[in-house]
Automatic annotation (TrEMBL):
Main location: membrane
GO biological process: protein ubiquitination
UniProt organism field: Rhynchospora pubera
Protein name listed in UniProt: Sulfite exporter TauE/SafE family protein
Sequence intervals crossing the membrane: 28-47, 53-72, 124-144, 156-179, 200-229, 241-261, 268-287, 299-324
Subcellular location field: Membrane
Cellular component aspect of the GO annotation: Cul4A-RING E3 ubiquitin ligase complex; membrane
Assigned keywords, A-Z: Membrane, Transmembrane, Transmembrane helix
Keyword Membrane: yes
Family classification: Belongs to the 4-toluene sulfonate uptake permease (TSUP) (TC 2.A.102) family.
Membrane topology listed for this record: Multi-pass membrane protein
Lineage: Eukaryota, Viridiplantae, Streptophyta, Embryophyta, Tracheophyta
One Pfam family of this chain: TauE
Length: 342
């Protein structure tokens, strides 16, 4: 949560690399965030229910598949950038030759009126952000209220169920506007229009799945949304910024839910939050400079793939080590009771 929050603080002032819009795609966030939040609540419940070895195996499978797909996506993006660089060099050489011969062609086509810098208040889509905060605040209120009820009581399940209409209503509002063409995913340019109903339903289901996995593994869902946005054709910078923005909402909700379940060691978490905040800010600046120097946004994809792979090895290895220890001690390794009092 600390890393996501500090990254959003850095990104919220930045603009899209080629279009006149923020680097965070607020409409894309609004399409996925409510369902992601709903999935987080389900995932946290599964975390209580599932045995450690089940979580470990699921983590390994998801991380290895996601990192592999992200890596090959990065390779494809690197090849496209190489072709673009060669074409740009050819056009530059041709222009230099024409100027040397005394012929300077008139520019044609629309000029790029994108502003490099705007104020932070201009760079935020306030109506979309308001809806995102409304979903987050509603879920927070329901979780806190649920903490004062008995596990698996009627009021407990009623409060849990109230999350569904909130998430569905906000997501449907955004999906219908996208379907009718009244809104578009601006970060995709002209491709951000003409959404089909099947696509929108599929993405909503993926949002719930990402939330379930994020809540189950305590990840916030960003590791799944980042590669998914790349598959949708969103530029790497925008994909990373938007996924992290959404993850701030879901990760903070995971923190609150685990704290209410008394599964949250505060001093331990605060220490790593500080480390993550500092590391995220350094990483943002370092990667930003590398992209400017090398002209390759695909670096973001490779870093994402590498991070997911390292997480799979380290977390998976730790989980397997703990699982072997429990087997040697003959400890219970089955499903837990969701309705026990915490």
């Amino acid at each position: 949560m600390g890393a996501a929050a500090s990254t959003v603080y850095y990104n919220i002032r930045l603009r899209h690399p080629t279009l006149s819009m923020p680097i965070i795609d607020y409409d894309l966030a609004l399409l996925f965030q409510p369902m992601l939040m709903l999935g987080i609540s389900i995932g946290v419940a599964f975390n209580v229910l599932f045995a450690d070895w089940m979580v470990t195996i699921l983590l390994l499978i998801i991380f290895l598949v996601t990192s592999t797909k992200a890596f090959f996506r990065g390779v494809a993006a690197w090849k496209k950038e190489t072709l673009f660089k060669k074409e740009a060099a050819r056009i530059l050489a041709q222009t230099v030759n024409e100027e040397a011969e005394g012929y300077i062609p008139l520019s044609s086509g629309p000029t790029n009126s994108r502003r490099e810098q705007v104020s932070i208040f201009e760079n935020i889509c306030w109506s979309e952000l308001g809806l995102l905060l409304l979903v987050w605040g509603t879920f927070l209120a329901l979780q806190i209220t649920k903490n004062y009820t008995s596990n698996c009581s009627i009021s407990y399940w009623v409060l849990n169920s109230l999350q569904i209409p909130v998430a569905v209503a906000v997501t449907m509002h955004e999906a219908v506007n996208l379907y009718k063409g009244e809104k578009k995913i601006q970060s995709k340019g002209d491709e951000g229009t003409n959404w089909r109903a099947f696509q929108l339903i599929l993405y909503c289901l993926i949002g719930i799945l990402a939330g379930i996995v994020g809540g189950l593994l305590g990840l916030g869902g960003g590791f799944i949304l980042g590669p998914l946005f790349l598959e949708l054709g969103v530029p790497p910078q925008v994909s990373s910024a938007t996924a992290t923005f959404i993850m701030t909402f879901s990760a903070s909700m995971s923190v609150i839910e685990y704290y209410l379940l008394k599964r949250f060691p505060v001093p331990y978490a605060l220490y790593f939050s500080v480390v993550a905040i500092i590391s995220a800010l350094i990483g943002q600046k370092a990667v930003g400079k590398l992209i400017k120097i090398l002209g390759r946004a695909s670096l973001i994809i490779f870093i994402l793939a590498f991070t997911i792979f390292v997480s799979a090895v380290s977390l998976g290895g730790t989980g397997i080590f703990n699982m072997i220890g429990k087997m040697e001690r003959h400890e219970y390794m089955g499903f837990e009771n969701l309705c026990k009092q915490h």
